[in-house]
Amino acid sequence: MFHADATAFAAAFAVLYAVHEVGDHWIQTDYQAITKGRPDWAGRLACAGHVVVLALVKASMVGLVAVVLALPLKPCAVIMSLAVDAVSHYWADRRRTLAALAERLGKGNFARLGDGLVAPAGTGAYALDQSWHVGWLLVAALGCCVGAAP
Fold first, then answer.
1. Which of 23, 24, 41, 103 has a CA positioned 20 to 30 A from the CA of residue 127?
2. Where are its TM segments located (predicted)?
3. What is the structure's pLDDT at 25?
4. Host H or E run for residue 135
């Protein structure tokens, strides 16, 4: 059976959520945001660049908070969890993948709500994208504290 510390889980989730919000909206470049969904190498590289920077910032901040709060996190668990989070983030940010999943699950109409040129953060696609990321942040936070003894 895996053991995890509830305090470490709560702290890890709070850090990952905060860093995700800053990283997805402030750190990501305009070029990455506009290009990452293109079905070519420019899109793949822009998306990879965004995800790598975001993963590095998440790792740095989780590490900092773990030291400051003396959280019993295992570096290997944190690295593996952030790798899973990064893969899920890349997959969703390629856009066509998440759009196809939305269609398959009957959420296509919701995904198409709003005008992405006028208010990209107010669209159904944006809401599905962000909720996907937050769900995986929960998984990553849990993974970060596996093996952490209370």
1. 41
2. 42-71
3. 94
4. helix 124-144
